[in-house]
Amino acid sequence: MPATPELQHTVGKSASLSGTSLHTGEKVTLRLQPAPVDHGIKFKRKDLQEEPTIDARVENLKTVERATTIGEGAMRVHTVEHVLAALSAMGVDNAIIEMDANEPPIGDGSAIGYVEMIKKAGVIPQESPRRPFTVREPLHIETKGGSVLVVLPDEKFRISCTQVGPQGRFTQFLSTEITPAIFEKEIAPARTFVFYEDVQPLMEKNLIKGGSLENAIVIRGDAVLSKEPLRFEDEFVRHKILDMIGDLALVGHRLRGHIIAVKPGHGPNAELARTLVREHAKTMPALQPRAFPAGEGGLDIKQVMDILPHRYPFLMVDRILGFEGETKITGVKSVTINEPYFGGHFPGHPVMPGVLQVEAMAQVASILMMKITQSASRIGYFISADDVKFRKPVFPGDTLFIHAELTKSRGGKLAKAKCHCAVNDQVVSEGELMFTFL
Ligand SMILES: [Zn+2]
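^ thats the input. predicted complex w/ zinc ion below
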């Protein structure tokens, strides 16, 4: 498992894997290459003129029959799901997958060959933070074929999958978190399986030239035909999870969410990936990636607005005067008669509402939190405000100095801060605030 999971990762050096491609039966060599931050995963066809590259993104998805194919113009890359699953689950965010054919080697039908290749190359951290897609609301898709895929908010990436074969044969269920260690041990070794009645017509049409018991398990009736015994009693559902991880890697962001899938397949997986991309785009305007300024110096209003999603009339800090070590921050807000709330709070007697001072404390404290975790693209949610006291009224013309000191922080997710606002060196309000970050 990468030592610093919040950073983007690539491979340490190149590594390769050779074998046969499933659909054409041709020999193919796949070579994994490091790539810079924010590059994502791209395939490169070394066998074509100009060596075109293509993003492993759902926008480039072409077909989902039996395997997942991406393409651009006339160029295609078939059966991308196993190598993408391995890269995604082993924590590789940025890499180039070079190939001298239109399909990666199928190996033994599992992803274990790719895991070994990735481990040979090494997974190394890069200087920029990851920008995972945290699912905030339940989403779901349903297909005519009876597949139901639901995504629920979760701190981790989990999959709970029910695999159902024809006539309900070989129905299997497995629920697991996906981490590099779990993937390598529990998911990657699970091999491709096919039902005889599904592949027989393809074999007759010679559409799976590279297919054999070397690289797939064949289920005929209740019989399981396989080169070696099953690797897990529930190997089929494990392979379904493997395929889902690969197909959902096309979202282009690591998922934080719990996927509950009944009868998944490349078609439903792709539909879910598209839904996730659409949903992610909706949350983006407020969450554009931003670089956090280095050092202990202050932040001007532009830098503050690069970090906080708040805008007029709800931005309660004009600038950050400075930081003190990792735990203290001071911000400032000029309170003018033009603040919209003075019109009603109160007519003829303008006083700044106390709750807005608490909001100012929360905004300043969350800037500190984001500096510490070096991720300015999240939103802090208030959980509680304790011991809040309003000691003196704040009037138009006052300059509010907002101080926050972090007293507790857990894994960049939960933070507690002791805060106070001062005018002319006198405390006007104080409180202890707690946040969570998404
Ligand atoms: Zn598969």
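The first strand starts at residue 7 and ends at 11.
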